[in-house]
Structure formats: C-alpha cells, structure tokens
Amino acid sequence: MSTTAAPVGVTGAAKTISMQATKTKKRLTSPWASLAAVIIAILWTLPTFGLLITSIRPVSDINSSGWWTFFTNPAFTLDNYKQVLDTQTSGTTLSQAFINSVVITLPAVVIPICLASLASYAFAWIEFKGRDFLFVLVFALQIVPIQVTLIPLLSLFVKLNLAGTFWPVWISHSIFALPLAIFLLHNFMKEVPRELIEAARVDGAGHVKIFFQVLMPLLTPAIAAFGIFQFLWVWNDLLVAITFASDATTSPMTVLLQNMTGTRGSSWFLLSAGAFISIALPLAVFLSMQRFFVRGLLAGSVKG
Amino acid sequence: MATAEKFGQALLAIAIFVVLVGILLFVAGKFSGRRGDRAVALVFLGPAVLGLVIGLIYPAIRTFYESFFNAGGDKFIGLDNYSNIFTSSDQLIVLRNTAIWVVVTPFVATAVGLVYAVLVDKSRVEAFAKALVFLPMAISFVGASIIWKFVYDYRFASPNVNQIGLLNQIVVWLGGSPQQWLLNKPLNTFFLIVVMIWIQAGFAMTVLSAAIKAIPEDIIEAARIDGVSGIGLFRYVTLPSIRPALVVVLTTIGIGTLKVFDIVRTMTGGQFDTSVVANEFYTQSFRANDQGLGAALAVLLFILVIPIVYYNIRQMRASEAR
C-alpha cells in the first residue's frame, strides 16, 4: 500500500533539520500529551487489575469492601481458585471445562492449517483454469457471518449422529477458519521468489518435494501467525461453542463462565478466579509470541 | 467421557487430517507435467472447497430459504419475518441498538487507538505502553465482560454497605448515589459498548501505529521545513498518509461490532432493551425456538455486512490506484 501523495523535495537534509525534528518530537510529548497517554493506559489496565486482585482476596473481604482496600488491608488466599475448579455449574466444573477447551482447541487449530496450506499452495503455484475466480470466491467467504450457517449445520451434525461429541466444534471451527487461513498462507507463499520454485522444478522436484522442502521451512512464521490467531479465536469463542458444544461433557470454559454469570452473577470470588483461569493461557501465548501475532494482524488487515 | 479419552479423540482427529495431507500429497506426486497440474490442483483444493461448500455455502443458502418460513419451519409465510423485524417494537429496539453499536464503537475505538499510537510513538516506554492497551485483545469477550461487569457492580445504597464496583465507588466518592448501570435504559447499551471499545482499541492502535511508522521520513521533514508542526503535522501529514489504514481499521471494527454476541449475552443476556441483531438471532433460534425469525435475523446480519465490505474494497482500490 503506497502513500506518496505529498511531494518529496528534500533528500539531503542538513543536520539542523533533524535537530528541529527531534525538537518537535519533544514538543509532541508535552506534559498534557503524557497525561492523556497515562489516563488511557490506566483505563485499559485498571479493570483487569481490579478483578485480578479480587480473585486473590478472601470471600468475606470481596463481598464487604472494594478491591482497592486490599492495599490498606491486605489478605491473600488461593481458595477462590481451588473452589472454582471444583464447583458444579450445570453438570460440569471449571477443571473439566478447562480440559474441554484444550481438547477443542488443538484439532481446531491443526486441521485448518493442514487443509489451508494445501489449498493455498495450489492457489499460489499451480496454473489452472478459473484459479483467480475461485480464489476471489474463497476470499469473499470471509464476510459470511457464521450465524447464517449455525442452524443448518446443527441439524446436519444431528443427522450424522455427531451431536454430543467434539466433532461438530472441530469441523465448524476448521471450516470457518479456512477463508482467512487460505488468504494469509497464500499471501506468504506468493512472497517466495518464483526462481526458487522454478529451480526446484528444473531439478526434477514434484509438488510434494517443493511443498515440504522448499515452501514449508519458509512458511513457518506464517503458519505460526495463523496458528496463534486461530488459537486465540477458538479458545475465546463463545458462539460456536454454545451452539455445538453446550452439553456438560464437551462445553469449554467460555460457555461455563457465561453460564456462571447468569446463575452465580454475584459470586465474584468464583467469577474472578474463573475468568483468570480462562485468561491465563491465551495471555501467556500472546505475550510470548506477540511478534508473530502482530505480523499476522498486519498481513491480514492491511494487505488488500 | 474421561479426560484421557477426550485427549485420545483430539489426537485421533489431528492424526486423521495429517495423514490425509500425506495421502493427498502422495497422490499428487503421481501426476506429472503440465496436464498433471490440473489434477494436482483438484487434489489440493478438494478438501478445502468441499468443506466450504458443505460448511458455509450450503448452510447460508439453507438459512436464506428458511427465513421465509414460520417459527416451526413448516409453513411458507413470505416476507413476514422480515416485516416483523422492521415493525414489532421489540425488534425495532434491537435494530436501534445495533445502529448505536456500529456507529459508536468503530469511531471511538479508532480515535482512542490513534491518539494513543501518536502519543506513545517513539517514546522511551513505547513497547510497554502499547502492550498495556494491546492486552485486552488476548482476553475473551466473555472474560472482558466479567471484568467490566465487576466494574459496574451495584450494591443497594445504605450506610453500612460498601460499593465493590469501581464505577459506583467513584460516583459515591464524588457525592452521588450508586446506579444500576446495566439495568437503566437506554444508557445501559453504552456501558456494554465500552467493553467492545476497550477490546478493539488495541487492534486500532497496532495497525495505525505500523502505518504511522511507515510514513517516509522525508515527507515529515519537508513539512517541517514548511513550518508545519504539532497538531498541524498530524492534521496535514499524518492523517492523509494513514488514511488507507484508517479505513481498514474502521471497517474491520465495524464488521466485528455488527456480529457482537458474546458481550451482550454475558452481561445482560439481551434483557433490559440491550439486545442486538447477533444476540437476537441466538435468542430467537435457540431460546424462543422461532427458527424463521432467527434465520431472517441471520440473513439481515449478512446483508448489513455487505455495504461495509463494499466500501472497504472501493477505498482499497482507490488508494492502490493513486
């Protein structure tokens, strides 16, 4: 995306100009600007911080005073975490729901990567009639709201006798992810220099060899970027899970927590600890792999 | 189902698809030459295209068809479901709320993200400052809803009761009386929107910050030579330069907001006049068992997305042509 609207006149800028530049930069970070930034930063962290503090306070404290009094009257406990893991809510517990979240997420991340890498290879490096049309069609499917698919899919799964298993969530998450996955991986595959592919072909390599030996090593960052995306999406999803995995044996943490806010709306000792158990893993993944995530985000949203 | 059994099934599912890829690659390897390319393309695209047809295209058409049928799905009623959406007082509130969400969220989230990106740009603590605003993006909508529900928590005001929700405590400190933020209409919708803005601002900040950093240094210096600085620099250089990124951010958040479901479901369940189209779809389809109306709401959601996407594509074309 090029933005060269303004005329560019100066190339050999003198030192005085860059000194001026630093001066203006300083002016931009005036006290007021800093204050505004600090206020935004506080507004964006304080709510989470408050709930975190709440989750480690004793029940009696939580219900009788605000979390901010923790600092004048500190009392620390991990009981809320222990208790929420074993508290029964609609036939299941948070520890079981945690396991379900993991069980749902793993295949729902791996399956679309498998299917999309094959498809995007075909779109990027194989010539066939109708390729561009098909690619635009797949790309366009990104805009279909998943709501329009849920009821017919649900009756399909019931007919296939899959209701009550994990297959409906796995399959639907995988399919819903395909348009974005194919688009992202295709973009990265296209960036691989043509000469590299041609050279491999001249050496007599078939598609299999090109796919595994030439493309795969180069694609790892792209797959990581999409993988993190899909992991966060599936782990944090409520709509697909509440539709296809709402019974006690399969429901993930989002469904259970949503249930708890309805049935135990004022049990903040449970809700706060439960929320943090569900937040912990994505937060850790996110912080450790932020680089890939930002790259995927920029590739997915800014590239046309 | 025991835990071990669940993990066994997950591994089995993964194995099935990994083996499938292996088999397809092996089959593809048997074809060769130019003519073989078509067969290879078919083999590689087959599973994905099949999945999309069965899992997206067919259900979408089916839902469209069902939107012309009654609650039980057994009697054709023409456009009645659609006229219901645009005439019944309950559904009109849903439409009004959806409009408020889609107008307010993208602009406020983008504005906050942009201002913050500019403010922390090139500062010493930039990476840390950005991570703070970015973090809510890793939190599920359900988790974020719980976090904010706690901020809004209300305790009946009496001398020996302390407020435990931060917002009401601030109101009390300022001498006011605590409010039931999520129950009082019509302002409660705005308190839900805050949660979405809180989540999306990080996305806006990340994309816009990257766009700001991509502005060529010489453009900025040229502007400075002409005596432009501070707000002027932002207005006449930064803003026009990042316009394409702004459009992408606004439309992406707009589409996301249109489909917002989790926040409304978790915070109010759509009660107290806070429902939106995506939540109402769920309520009608799965709670009220009105299949026809649910299908019509889903189709409406689809139709509402189209103009935003269209605008996005047109802007993208325009900026590429420049």
General description of the model:
The complex is a heterodimer of chains A (304) and B (322). The termini of chain A are close together. In chain A, 73% of the residues lie in helices and 0% in strands. The longest helix of chain A is centred in the middle third of the chain and has 32 residues, at 94-125. Chain A is globular and about 75 Å long. Chain A is mostly helical. Chain A has 2 domains: 23-77, no CATH class; 88-301, MetI-like (MetI-like fold). Chain B is mainly α and 322 residues long. The radius of gyration of chain B is 25 Å and the shape is globular. The chains are: A mainly alpha (304), B mainly alpha (322).
Summed over residues and divided by their number, the pLDDT of chain A gives a mean of: 83
CATH architecture of the largest domain in chain B: Orthogonal Bundle
Low-confidence stretches of chain A: 1-27
The CATH homologous superfamily of the largest domain in chain B: MetI-like
- How many domain modules of chain A? 2
CATH architecture annotation name of the largest domain in chain A? Orthogonal Bundle
Mean pLDDT of chain B, nearest integer? 89
Terminus-to-terminus distance of chain A: 8 Å
Determine the structural class of chain A based on helices, strands and strand pairing. Answer: mainly alpha
The helix tally of chain A amounts to 14
- As for the number of domains of chain B, it is 2
Radius of gyration of chain A: 25 Å
Categorize the overall geometry of chain A.
Answer: globular
Highest-level CATH class of the largest domain in chain B: Mainly Alpha
